[in-house]
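New to this. Please check this protein:
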Amino acid sequence: MTIRDLQPKLIWEIFDQITAVPRPSKREGKIIEYLLDFAKQHNLEAVRDDIGNVVIRKGATAGYEALPTVILQSHMDMVCEKNSDTEHNFDTDPICTKIVDGWVKAEGTTLGADCGIGMAAALAVLVDPTVEHGAIEALFTVDEETGLTGAFNLGEGMLTGKYLINLDSEDEGEIFIGCAGGVDTLGYFDYTTQTLPAGYEYYRIGVSGLKGGHSGDDIDKGLGNANKILAHFLYDAERFGIRLGMFDGGNLRNAIPREAYAVVAVPEHTALLFETSLATYVSAVKALYAATEPSLKITLGQAAEQPVIDEDTQSSLLAAIVGLPNGVLAMSQAMKGLVETSTNTASVKFVDSKIVVTTSQRSSVELAKKSAMHSVEAVLVLAGAEVEHSDGYPGWAPNPDSSLLHCTVESYKSLFGTEPKVRAIHAGLECGLFLEKYPHLEMVSFGPTLRGVHSPDERLEIATVDKFWQLLLDVLKKVK
């Protein structure tokens, strides 16, 4: 069985088509072409703005002309993460899908169901002749994952609808009416290198096997951060006279880093103490994360000689990574169980002549977001880094009186005989930016169940896709 054999058949067939189209963030040319071709093949009106966002329009079905125009919104880019032992070129290769115990997964890479399944649902609505609806505007935005660039730069006049359904949620049975805002904080360290004399052993230390995940949705799961785990050991190991040649960890600002490695030179006379200390640390870390990270691995192997960075930068860099706040900073006082504020030490990279530390802060409270940003900035400044911030993006304030929300809740209850949860999400959605451009919009967000997003463990629960589809169709037919 392949995913094309699953039900509802149309949505799975379109999702399968989407998985065959490379669509990394900021390199969405092929998926834009796919969307425009799709519209042309089905005689649908399509427009593209200067940044690359695409809107495909379809008129109301017979008898539903009086219903308001509904915008179906999803983003076309995907997070491109793969296991270190997986050969995959995200610019050219299709995603290889498989069915495992009621879930759809990919072979060693992210699946791209975030937000490919939302795209598939919107496209299916546009071409399924049995679906009853008012006028539809299907909006597909670029570069949601690395900067919300499409939403920030949405062209004038692209949308006319009153209601917007965001199809980028990951928990079936939950309807989202608010999200966190966010900002990225980056630290740049200058460094020089030197070649050490004889008398050093060179090692490669690697942290792997972590689950990773979404730095918003999964930040409260107690998951390990590979950058922090590695840096804590190296910071302590400076007492053995180690010299740092390389530190590389994480990839994306919105993914909890799963893997990191470092190359270090250790004086021969302390090498045995270094190895013994690492063994002790490994046991302690495995015990600490036994419940949440059972596959955690820390490996030690020989490495080739290489230049090392200057001692001052080494000390400052390791102190900064250790000192950076990471994880949940505050829980919401207004909505039980909701993370209010968090930060993620996302990546450490040697780029040209600088070492770049990338972090991401989120909060549903603007002042708290700014305070978290300042806390991260202060650590980096004290460590001697040059600091810059992204433009950031606003949160989406909940509107519990929305008629679209009431319609969605009633549809869910009538279809499935149970009350859906109505809540806000700690992850960032594009809705806050749409509201700035179109203040009249009423919005909800819902979707099927996804787990492990932004990691190669990303998976989509098959049974929830049908419920997601049923809910979407019922809302489109009943919205007033």
